[in-house]
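To whoever is on call:

I kicked off a structure prediction for a single chain this morning and the downstream step that reads the tokens threw a length-mismatch warning. I double-checked the sequence; it's 289 residues and nothing unusual in it as far as I can see. Pasting both halves so you can look.
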Amino acid sequence: MCGIVGLHLRTPELYPRLGELLAAMLGEMSDRGADSAGVAVYGDPEWSPYGQGCVSVTDVPEKPDLGPDVDVVQVDSTYLLSADMEPEELLDLVRAAYPTALISGFGPDLAVLKGVGHPRSLTEAWGLSKAQGWQGVGHTRMATESAVTPSGCHPYTVGPGQCLVHNGSFANHATIRRELRRAGVVFDSENDTEVGARFVAEQLAAGRDVATALKELCATFDGFYTLLVSDHDSFAVVRDAIACKPAVIAETADWVAMASEYRALAGLPGVEQARIWEPEPEVVYAWTR
């Protein structure tokens, strides 16, 4: 059992409140997964300055030093790097200098934070309530498939700006992992969710859109799951064919939000006027800026 939250803001007036709203949503999902948590925030001007390539790094012994052209912001145990270059170029520099570091995320306008501990304690340590932006996703974990480590935390950001969070389990993840490894894909963990994230990233890299990639995942993966996938400008949700893992979507003119349970949505502004529904099995729901 894990908890998923996601918030896609349509009204710029709400951008300064993204972190406040996301932190409250994540806190409500703490009892669905209290051993670790993670968030992805799109658009915070301090964590991921506009127009810069951004890389989030965890599990490094000291503050990264890549020269005067790379800015570094420390947020708890994560270092957020940014520079006037493409995210992939900065990522190559980080990997060359710190080959054992865990890359939590990379992409324009993106910061990814992960940690082991209670979600409420982590959001406080991150100062998440002060973050700004237009979109955020989060996950609270109750580990079932792999160790409780930062590499086992969601979101999985394995393509540029692409994040995936997952509640449930993939029954055939070991088989698909072997197939992806034969194709040259490298993994950071033994987590089944990472297999799903790598699969979606391969689909997107091949030119498919998010909806097509998620439909292909539904056709390929066995198990019970709810998935939320985001990139720089979009937000998508899909459930398996039986849809036994809980999920609720709410939508207003100002925002779209998703969570494993309604109580994570109950504090959003204007939720009383929202259209609220439970996503249908294997239907991809997607929104774009």
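Update from on-call: the warning came from a stale cache, not from the record. Cleared it. Sanity check on the structure: The domain at 3-288 is CATH 3.60.20.10 (Glutamine Phosphoribosylpyrophosphate, subunit 1, domain 1).
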